Amino acid sequence: MMNAPATVTFNPCLDCGACCASFRVSFYWAEADSLGLPAAMVQQLTPWHACLAGTNQPAPRCQALVGEVGQSVSCSLYAQRPSPCHEVQAGDAQCRKARHKHGLPALPMLALSEG
Asked: Domain of life of the organism in this record (predicted)?
């Protein structure tokens, strides 16, 4: 009996990271507590809003981003990432804008599974 071939999931985000180095990642402050984000990774913006450290800069780069944009990247907070990080999808308008900013070619709209 033959085994079915393993399914390989292509995730261009693992080679990109442009969105993590292009936008402020802001969210309702209580989300940080509910996700258990380390205090050093959260910057308070207003009494109601916070952002991930490093993203409220003229040249944003999330402090959780590990690696070189456009090469090989990962997120040190992936399991705890806040809602804005779930919203950008590979190939959507925000992705295209971030990739353009970093000199990377646009991606087609892809459906990535959450993990």
From this structure: Bacteria
